[in-house]
Design a protein that fits this description.
Length: 220
């Protein structure tokens, strides 16, 4: 299914924020105009299952208020459990066709493709709704991730008819080059949610909203 996905793709990594600030920061991003939200929890075993579920349901409620789809990083079963709108899978995190069978035809399924057009072509053939390339710039979240080239986006734009997501060190200053190269969405983690607890404790929501608005203005 060729879905219309365009704009800022916010990735809420709970390791970047305290639980006290997490939901306020996410609401700021939603209020600032992000078009897709992913919940990333890379250490689910370290968190009680009921607490993780509670966060998932709270995020889902927020996303519904702003009419923004919620995707879950890597975890098909958690996605199905809370009724999120889709899942993002890395190359080692599951099969796209199985995810489609498990979540149904309306789910949004995205696949990490690093810097590989071959992986992206396979994902598209398997029914992915979008493919993600990166990292394009130095990344605080994944400093050791393999770099991706702008040319990969440009070639993918010519060969694929599904949305392309760019990720890795993206902010309001460098995002325009990725859009010009062919990205439909810019996935942003640290550029939205980084260093909030230390610098902006008084008004997390407003500061994230301002960051999101700066990013969404790249499409103006």
């Amino acid at each position: 299914m060729n879905r219309h996905l365009c704009g800022i793709y916010a990735i809420a990594n709970d390791s970047l924020m305290t639980s006290e600030h997490f939901l306020a920061a996410v609401e700021g991003a939603l209020a600032g105009g992000v078009q897709l939200l992913q919940y990333r929890n890379k250490a689910p075993a370290a968190q009680p299952a009921d607490r993780r579920a509670a966060i998932g349901y709270e995020l889902l409620e927020l996303c519904q208020q702003y009419q923004v789809p919620l995707l879950i990083n890597d975890d098909l079963e958690f996605c199905a459990e809370i009724g999120a709108q889709g899942v993002h899978l890395g190359q080692r995190d599951g099969d796209c066709r199985y995810a489609r069978a498990r979540l149904g035809p309306d789910a949004i399924i995205g696949i990490t493709c690093h810097d590989s057009l071959t992986l992206a072509q396979t994902a598209a053939a398997d029914g992915a709704d979008y493919v993600a390339f990166g990292r394009f710039f130095s990344s605080v979240t994944k400093p050791d991730a393999t770099p991706a080239a702008l040319d990969t986006l440009s070639r993918a734009r010519k060969q694929l008819d599904i949305p392309l997501v760019a990720i890795g060190g993206i902010n309001a200053d460098n995002g325009a080059s990725l859009i010009e190269a062919g990205a439909d969405m810019l996935a942003v983690i640290h550029g939205l949610f980084g260093e909030l607890d230390q610098s902006y404790a008084e008004d997390i929501r407003q500061h994230v909203r301002q960051r999101a608005e700066q990013l969404t203005s790249l499409w103006a």
